[in-house]
Each structure stands twice: as C-alpha cells, then as structure tokens.
Amino acid sequence: MRGDKHPITLPGETYDQRTYVPGVEVEGIVWTSGFVGNEVVAGRSYYPQDTSLQLELAYSVIGNVLMKQKLCRRMWLRVSITYLLSASFNTPGADDVRRRFFGERFPATTSIPVNRLLRPDGHVEIEMVAVKGGVREDIQVPEWTENYGGLSRSAAVKKGEDDTSIGAIFCGPHERRNGWRF
Length: 182
Prior knowledge:
By secondary structure, the chain is of the alpha+beta class. The protein has helices at 51-68, 94-102, 142-147, 164-170; strands at residues 6-8, 23-26, 29-32, 35-36, 39-41, 44-46, 76-85, 108-114, 124-131, 135-139, 156-160, 176-177, 180-181.
C-alpha cells in the first residue's frame, strides 16, 4: 500500500502522548490497534479479572473506531484475537460476547495463546481489519462447519461488491445490536 495513512482517533483520548493511534486507514482498508478490555475508574485504567467482560470492553472500543470510519459489520473482514492467555482460551461466556457483537456473521478469526500479555492484568488483546466500499463475502470450505463450526464459520473472507441498497439497510446511522452501535 502506497497511499497516505490516515490516523483514526477517538474523542477525549491523548494520543499525542502515546506511540500509537486506535486505528489507521490506507486506501479504504482500516486496521485497528490491538485492544485489551479495560475501564477507567477514578481516572485510572482498571482491568476487570473477568475475561468475558474484558472481551466486551475491547470489542466496544474497536466498534467505536470502526464506526468513526462509518464501517458496519458487513464490512469487517478479519478479527485477530492476537494474544489470549492460555488459561482464558475456553472462557465461559466468550461465545455469547462474540454473538452479541457480530450477530451471526462472524469474520475470519485467529487466536494465539500466550503465557502473558504486556499488561499483566489483561487476559485478551483483539485487533480487527475492515474494508470500505464493499461487502464481506465468506469463503466456505464444505467440511469447515462440520469440523470447526462454532464461532468461526468462515475459513476466509474477501471483499465483495458494494450493494448500496443493502448499505442503506445495514449501515444506517441508528444500527444497534445489544447496546453496541454498528
């Protein structure tokens, strides 16, 4: 990619004091940074020790970054749960968090178990890639659902043709799902 990089920032954050931004867009492709789910309590970052809650908080930030670029669920191509504490791999409730966030159209996903994150209180770090100007098309492998199924129904995804009539329905300014704005 040779196009200009456009940083994506969120209101109220002080990215000039950090070495990263929440996301970057180049030529219609948006990459988010990796996020560990945390809350600000009394002016300090607090990392709840409930992995499902950390997932929910991380997805919420990523949703805000993508919405700032006017990207809705049908454009999200790939999620990387880049770092996942080995002990958190089969967290009860994690599947429910993913269903609430993605509905029933899950992007391609990679999970990489690690011994610890840079943030010792973090259980999981999530990043996402999305593409503007098209609709996500799932690439299916016949045996995939039978053997892997669950929350990663697609072996891969690709950018499909944009359908503005679908966009008007699914990417409207008020699209919400379980409190998350898409």
